[in-house]
Structure formats: C-alpha cells, structure tokens
C-alpha cells in the first residue's frame, strides 16, 4: 500500500458484511476495526538496487581518480623506458576494478557475468616484454577503463536522484530505482562482460602458440640427441673399424674379415636406428597408406594385444593425421610402460567436423593430466589446434582416454600422397 492510498482509506468509509463501519479518529474502537499501518511496498531486491545506486558515487569516484592518475602518469612517462610498463600496470589495476564492480553488480543487482580470461594465460611462459605488450593491448582492461570514466558522472546522477526520491518523493522510489538499476545492468553487461567469442579464441590461440613452439623445440632437441648418441656414434665407430680392417687386410686377412663382419653388424644397427628415428618424425607408412595401416603398425609393436578400428571414409589434412598418429602412438607407449594392462583398444571415427580418438585399456588406472605428466603435454598439444583431451581413469581401471581434433579436409594436391 502506498501513502496516498493509505491516507485516502483513513478518510473514507469501509463496508463490511454487517453494515457500514466508519473509522473515527480518537475513538476507542477494537483493534480489528483499525486499518493496518502504512508500510513501504518494496521487496528486498528493490532495497538492494537502492543500495547499489547510492554506492555508485563513491565507487565511480574511486575508479575515476585511479584511471586518471595512471593515464596521466603513463602519458607523462611515455618518452621514457618505463612509460609502457606503467601503462601495463595501470591496465592491470583497471582489470581489478572491473572484477570488483562485477562482484558488486552480482551481489546487489543479481547480474551473473562470467569472469574474463586471466591475463596470465595470454602469453604462457612469456618474458616481461611479452607480458607488458599483452597487458597494453588487453581489451578487457580497456573496457574497464572506459567503464570507470563513465561511472563518475553517472554515479553523481544516480546518487542525487535516489537520495532525493528516498527523502522527498519516496512513493516513486521503486520505479526510479528499477529504471536506474536497469541502466546499470546494461553498462555492466556491455563493458565488463568477458570478451567476445572471437577475442576469447584469439587469446587462447596466442597462449597455445607458445606451447606449439616449445613442443617443436623439444622435438628438435630430441632428434639431435638421438642422432648424436645413436646413429652418429655407431657410424663413427664403423668408420674407425673399417679403417683398422683396411690396415690388416694384407697382414692378417682373417682378423680383417672379422672386423668387416662386425662393421656389417654395426651398419645394420645404424640403419635400424635411423629408421626408428624417421618413424618418430613422420612414418612413411602414414604418408603412403594413412592412419589405419600406420596405427596397426604401432599396435603391433605394443607389449599388449591391441585391436585397432579406423572408420574414416576419407583422410584428414596431413597435420591432423600426423597429430592423431602421434597421439595414439604416445598413448600406446604409456600402456606398454605403465598400465599393466592385458588388452587395449583403439578407435578412430569422424563425427561431423571432428576427428574422434578413443583408447581403452584394462590396466590398473590412475592416469591423470596433472602438471608435469606426459598426458598433460599431450593435452596442451591437442589444445593448440582447438582439440580436446579427456581422461577417465579410476584407480583399479579401466582407463578410457578420448581425444577430439578438428576435421580438416586433405588438400587436393595431397589426395594421392
């Protein structure tokens, strides 16, 4: 009931089932004949909106002063080497203010907004300069800065209107609070929401690009190490053995023949190591015959029986095909080394625009993608191409690992390769 309706009821007659009954001021009628006291017709959400509007001014003042100070400092120091870092730190603080404002809107206005991607994920393991540049071009921080600028004049308006309505024209306070709070909701959603899907994907791909570079560098170091410690060492020993055999051909033909036989054995071992190394880079069977034959070859080398099912009407792009091959190859190596399984299964199939991989084993379980594990690196590698990686491995088994890769058609020029 509003104040005007209560006052009107206090001066008019009410009609009941037993006849008219008039409220006489100053009488001694029973309590049941008295009208209920006047109350505010506002619920808890309205009062939360009022509280939010009254807090707009101090919050806007704090944000405006902070943003003005760091922008002025960044502009003044732009001619020096510390200008850009000052700007980056100021934008990081603007991000913090945006987080506080999202929390205030969540608690008082009921606006549910997801938190943006943390800045630390943008360049993973990057140096100070890369972090500074990522902070300077962060769209989330710049929108929070704009929000802080707008909040001060808006906060002055909302504080003044709400305060006047609260003490002078409170019957219309509920309507004013709802309208002003809706404008606040729109501002929070428009300026403090996470980046658009495109911005989100760009940030994630920038982060994953570092993973790809690190992985490629690690693969190059592994190849160099394998060549140095394996085939190269054998070839050096082979050259020395053949040199000694050449010197003994005339003096001791039998000893020279034995040395040539040993050199022949070394040649075969060196060739096998080179084949294994080439298979680890990109196996010829994968290029020539595709995933079905290549994975069957990998399964044959596993220490447990593995069944392979590849249901693909066409071959994917070489990059996706290679990543699928190495994913299954690494998972089967883990099964051989760690699972204690008796059997394993590998399945590949296409579902719309995704290539799905599932590897099962009946081993002891307990596999996880915790930081530092081989599965964590595999998950990062798949994530770098917009893939997914899921592990279901309860203690005691079984273990089911599912991977998804984006399907990309094979280029026409590679269709027959």
Commentary on this structure:
This protein has three domains: 152 residues, no CATH class; 75 residues, Up-down Bundle (Single alpha-helices involved in coiled-coils or other helix-helix interfaces); 126 residues, Heat Shock Protein 90 (2-Layer Sandwich). Helices cover 61% and strands 10% of the residues. It contains twelve helices and seven strands. Helix 2 packs antiparallel against helix 3, helix 3 crosses helix 4 and helix 10 runs parallel beside helix 11. The longest helix is centred in the middle third of the chain and has 52 residues. It is elongated and about 120 Å long. The relative contact order is 0.07. The N terminus is likely disordered.
What descriptive keywords fit this protein?
single chain, 417 residues, alpha+beta, Single alpha-helices involved in coiled-coils or other helix-helix interfaces, Heat Shock Protein 90, 3 domains, five-stranded mixed sheet, two-stranded antiparallel sheet, 7 strands
């Amino acid at each position: 009931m509003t104040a005007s309706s209560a006052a009107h009821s206090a001066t008019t007659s009410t009609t009941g089932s037993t006849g008219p009954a008039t409220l006489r001021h100053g009488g001694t009628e029973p309590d049941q004949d008295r009208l209920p006291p006047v109350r505010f017709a506002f619920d808890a959400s309205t009062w939360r909106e009022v509280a939010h509007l009254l807090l707009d001014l101090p919050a806007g003042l704090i944000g405006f002063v902070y943003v003005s100070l760091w922008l002025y400092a960044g502009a003044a120091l732009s001619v020096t080497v510390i200008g850009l870092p000052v700007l980056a730190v100021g934008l990081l603080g603007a991000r913090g203010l945006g987080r506080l404002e999202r929390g205030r809107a969540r608690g008082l206005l009921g606006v549910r907004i997801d938190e943006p991607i943390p800045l630390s994920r943008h360049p993973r393991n990057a140096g100070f300069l890369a972090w500074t540049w990522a902070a300077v071009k962060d769209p989330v921080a710049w929108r929070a800065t704009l929000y802080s600028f707008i909040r001060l004049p808006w906060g002055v308006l909302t504080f003044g209107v709400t305060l006047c309505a609260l003490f002078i024209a409170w019957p219309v306070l509920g309507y004013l609070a709802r309208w002003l709070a809706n404008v606040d909701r729109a501002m929070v959603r428009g300026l403090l929401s996470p980046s658009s899907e495109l911005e989100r994907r760009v940030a994630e791909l920038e982060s994953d690009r570092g993973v790809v570079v690190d992985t490629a560098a690690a693969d190059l170091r592994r190849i160099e190490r394998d060549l140095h410690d394996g085939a190269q060492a054998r070839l050096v020993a082979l050259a020395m053995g053949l040199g000694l055999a050449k010197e003994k051909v005339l003096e001791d033909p039998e000893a020279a023949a034995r040395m040539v036989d040993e050199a022949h054995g070394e040649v075969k071992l060196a060739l096998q190591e080179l084949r294994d190394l080439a298979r680890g880079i990109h196996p010829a069977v994968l290029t020539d015959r595709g995933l079905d034959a290549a994975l069957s070859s990998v399964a044959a080398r596993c220490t447990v029986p593995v069944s392979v099912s590849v249901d693909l009407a066409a071959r994917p792009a070489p990059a996706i095909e290679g990543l699928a091959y190495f994913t299954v190859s690494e998972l089967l190596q883990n099964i051989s080394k760690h699972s204690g399984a008796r059997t394993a299964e590998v399945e590949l199939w296409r579902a719309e625009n995704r290539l799905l991989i599932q590897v099962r084993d009946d081993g002891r379980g307990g596999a996880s993608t915790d930081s530092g594990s081989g599965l964590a690196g595999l998950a990062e590698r798949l994530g770098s191409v917009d893939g997914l990686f899921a592990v279901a491995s309860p203690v005691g088994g079984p273990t089911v690992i599912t991977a998804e890769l984006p399907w990309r058609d094979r280029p026409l020029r590679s269709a027959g390769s």
